[in-house]
Amino acid sequence: MTKRDEMEQLKALEDRIAKAKAAIEPPRAAQDHHSMAQIGWRMVIELVSGLGIGAAMGYGLDVLLGTLPIFLVLLTLLGFAAGIKTMMRSAREFETGKDTTVPPKAAAEQGDKTSGG
Question: Region Disordered: start and end of each range (predicted)?
């Protein structure tokens, strides 16, 4: 066997290995440089919406009951806390890469239903 034949066999083997690796490994997702900005905006919107909904409900109750500053302050703070809680849940979801809104037991039951088992 000549050196040239050995080099051709080696190249063919490398090509076969590369094809086998490509078939086994999933293709890498293209990097979306906007994805982190989208996550950040989602968190900001969750926080601001919680704050806004709490303030609107508090103002509405104060107007109806005639107690202007009490419910506005209380429900604004409650809305802020709800926004923070929702924002932290979203951060945990992105960190782990899975949806945390479904409890593990319910997720396992859903998996059984969808897998046909």
Answer: 94-117
User: Whole-prediction pTM value?
Assistant: 0.54
Q: State how far the Cα of 14 lies from the Cα of 24, in Å rounded to an integer.
A: 15
Dihedral sign for Cα 26, 29, 30, 31, please. negative
**DSSP one-letter string for 28-78:** PPPP-TTHHHHHHHHHHHHHHHHHHHHHHHHHHHHHHHT-HHHHHHHHHHH
| In the chain, where the domains are located | 46-94
**Cα–Cα distance between 24 and 16 in angstroms, integer?**
12
Closest CA to 61 of 50, 48, 75, 40: 75
User: Quick one: pLDDT at residue 94?
Assistant: 82
Q: Which residue has the tokens 């104060």?
A: 62
All residue ranges of the chain with pLDDT < 70 are 1, 27-34, 97-117
Tokens found for residue 65: 């009951």
Whether 10 and 58 have beta carbons less than 8 Å apart is answered as: no
